[in-house]
Amino acid sequence: MDMRVAAYCVITDDDGRLLLAHWNEGRRSAWTMPGGGLEAGEDPEHAARREVREETGYRAAVGELLGIHSRVIPAARRIAGGADSPLHTLRIVYRARITGGQLRNEADGSTDRAGWFTLAEVRTLQRVKLVDIALQMANLI
Is the domain covering 2-137 a CATH 2.60.120.560 domain? Predict the structure, then answer.
């Protein structure tokens, strides 16, 4: 079984809008929490800050650990075509706040744009399940 550990952030602004990144890898595209996989030996909080910067252009201060979500994806459902073993994903979710930077879209990455959305708008978006999981962890839904 393969394993992937990733760190994500729940970031809201003063108006209660949620920052999301538009993921565009694999069989479909959808909105997701800003964040992504840890590099070898990388601290999860550092990975969360790095990924937020890469995907949105913002610098973030990582706060409270909201939770860790564990999921096993069967080999046949993996994004990587031809995978012959399941993938165990551990998704570490933090609350974070913006400390600087400007909203911009990622170039040549796993996401192609970022944006702020009200919770009502989030419900209408094509999104990955992690968005709802993270919002539940943050007591936002």
Answer: no
